[in-house]
């Protein structure tokens, strides 16, 4: 494809990618703020501003390993073209909107990967899948909530044991302040892992269309633009999902909120450093269930958690089918 002729299409697709990034922030705002809102440490309007700020500055703290994985580690970069990118983005956007309307905390990350796989496989068959990269991502679907669960549960048990002689009032006051720290760390992890997925899509699109010299990389303007789009999305919030994450799974105290956010943040930091695109939704849900189970197993509303798990299972196939449909639909007009 001639680069000059492709420029208007390229700009339009970058706009669609940034729309997905905005919706990702909107959809996943609950991941960053559900606990700090549900414990009444911050009012919702202040919480989203707090989370949006740390979402935006995440690029200062992390490398771009996740963007590299999305760009070249899920499907063969040689199969990427505007139709594949459009199908991937529309599959993810459509699934995000559907789950947002129903208040289901599904994974924007896996919706994007599902859409990408659906469009790419429709174009060139299953041989285009980079199984090593996809395998790491698939494993993270199971491992990230388990790690978040385990770390949050362990933190809850350790902190509870250390503070056993303290009064509930003093513990509550202390952890209301500490939740500012844990929420900041989680928002950094969220911005660091999730914004990079859109960076990878935009970068591989530029690479496939000949707009990138010196091999595949992520230009700085792509980094800043994606971080800003996600931050703005978070600023607008996603209140339906905040309610599910913050109160319907289990009721949280400031101590529990701190342990859930810290356990989730550690999980995201590790995954981002390893270049694994994990679901921030899966991670914080596992952590919230962990702190609830530390109190007592019956305190977790397992039927709510179960419905969320079902949404996780169907996210990638559903977005993949939508991505494939949009890939075929796009072919009718191009």
TrEMBL record:
<keyword id="KW-0812">Transmembrane</keyword>
<keyword id="KW-0472">Membrane</keyword>
<dbReference type="GO" id="GO:0005315">
    <property type="term" value="F:phosphate transmembrane transporter activity"/>
</dbReference>
<keyword id="KW-0813">Transport</keyword>
<feature type="transmembrane region" description="Helical">
    <location>
        <begin position="140"/>
        <end position="164"/>
    </location>
</feature>
<dbReference type="InterPro" id="IPR001204">
    <property type="entry name" value="Phos_transporter"/>
</dbReference>
<feature type="transmembrane region" description="Helical">
    <location>
        <begin position="46"/>
        <end position="64"/>
    </location>
</feature>
<dbReference type="Pfam" id="PF01384">
    <property type="entry name" value="PHO4"/>
</dbReference>
<feature type="transmembrane region" description="Helical">
    <location>
        <begin position="111"/>
        <end position="134"/>
    </location>
</feature>
<feature type="transmembrane region" description="Helical">
    <location>
        <begin position="6"/>
        <end position="26"/>
    </location>
</feature>
<protein>
    <submittedName>
        <fullName>Low-affinity inorganic phosphate transporter 1</fullName>
    </submittedName>
</protein>
<dbReference type="GO" id="GO:0016020">
    <property type="term" value="C:membrane"/>
</dbReference>
<feature type="transmembrane region" description="Helical">
    <location>
        <begin position="84"/>
        <end position="104"/>
    </location>
</feature>
<feature type="transmembrane region" description="Helical">
    <location>
        <begin position="304"/>
        <end position="329"/>
    </location>
</feature>
<feature type="transmembrane region" description="Helical">
    <location>
        <begin position="220"/>
        <end position="242"/>
    </location>
</feature>
<keyword id="KW-1133">Transmembrane helix</keyword>
<dbReference type="GO" id="GO:0035435">
    <property type="term" value="P:phosphate ion transmembrane transport"/>
</dbReference>
């Amino acid at each position: 494809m001639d680069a000059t002729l492709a420029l208007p299409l390229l700009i339009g697709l970058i706009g669609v990618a940034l729309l997905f990034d905005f919706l990702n922030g909107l959809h996943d705002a609950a991941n960053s703020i559900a606990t700090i809102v549900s414990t009444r440490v911050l009012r919702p309007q202040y919480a989203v501003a707090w989370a949006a700020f740390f979402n935006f500055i995440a690029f200062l703290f992390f490398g771009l390993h996740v963007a590299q994985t999305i760009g070249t580690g899920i499907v063969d970069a040689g199969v990427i073209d505007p139709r594949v990118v459009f199908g991937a983005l529309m599959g993810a956007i459509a699934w995000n909107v559907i789950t947002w309307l129903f208040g289901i905390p599904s994974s924007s990350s896996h919706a994007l990967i599902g859409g990408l796989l659906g469009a790419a496989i429709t174009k060139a068959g299953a041989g285009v899948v980079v199984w090593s990269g996809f395998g790491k991502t698939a494993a993270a679907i199971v491992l990230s909530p388990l790690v978040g669960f385990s770390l949050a549960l362990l933190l809850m048990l350790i902190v509870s044991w250390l503070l056993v002689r303290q009064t509930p009032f003093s513990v509550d006051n202390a952890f209301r302040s500490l939740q500012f720290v844990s929420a900041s760390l989680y928002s950094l992890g969220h911005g660091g892992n999730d914004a990079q997925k859109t960076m990878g899509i935009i970068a591989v699109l530029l690479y496939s269309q000949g707009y990138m010299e010196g091999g595949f990389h992520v230009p700085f303007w792509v980094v800043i633009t994606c971080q800003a789009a996600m931050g703005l999305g978070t600023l607008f919030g996603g209140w339906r999902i905040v309610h599910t994450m913050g109160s319907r799974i289990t009721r949280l105290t400031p101590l529990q909120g701190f342990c859930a956010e810290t356990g989730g943040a550690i999980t995201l930091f590790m995954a981002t450093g390893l270049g694994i695109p994990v679901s921030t939704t899966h991670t914080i849900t596992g952590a919230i269930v962990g702190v609830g189970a530390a109190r007592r197993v019956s305190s977790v509303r397992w039927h709510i958690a179960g419905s969320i798990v079902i949404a996780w299972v169907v996210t990638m196939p559903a977005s993949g089918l939508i991505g494939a449909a949009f890939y075929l639909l796009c072919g009718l007009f191009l």
